[in-house]
Amino acid sequence: MSFSSPTKVTPSNIPSVALAILYQDGRFLMQLRDNIPTIIYPDRWGFFGGHLEPGETPEIGVKREVLEEINYKIENPIFFRNYDDDEAFRHIFHAPLTVSIDDLILREGANLGFVSPEEVKKGQCYSKKLGDVRPLGKIHQEILLDFISK
Description:
Blueprint: E1 2-4, E2 16-24, E3 27-32, E4 45-46, E5 48-51, H1 58-70, E6 78-84, E7 89-96, E8 111-115, H2 117-122, E9 124-127, E10 132-135, H3 138-149
Pfam families: NUDIX (PF00293)
Domain Nudix hydrolase: 12-138
Protein name: NUDIX hydrolase
């Protein structure tokens, strides 16, 4: 896996996605992905965001995806880094979550919740809705560890 500047050209043979690190009070808002074997990182905690539409910029894409997934409007997403591997070319942005988690409407995924830096380091987080601990997606954990250390 590698990371790069926002000017790197996206490889055409892998999907391009835009993801958001949303934070509030020192914790990170994450989505517990559905437990569907055909999706990437099923039943794992990950970021909100998703595939870019043809011709869509990463910034517009991350705004659209977050609005679609949790009905939250990111005003000014800040570019963090690009991460790429064999699965996806990821454009990572960050922004504060300026509303209560209770104001969000989860439209995709099994659950949403805050993940503490300690849980990021452990690589797992408890889901109140499911009543069980679920792992973070490996790439999501790596990205958050990089973000925390910056």
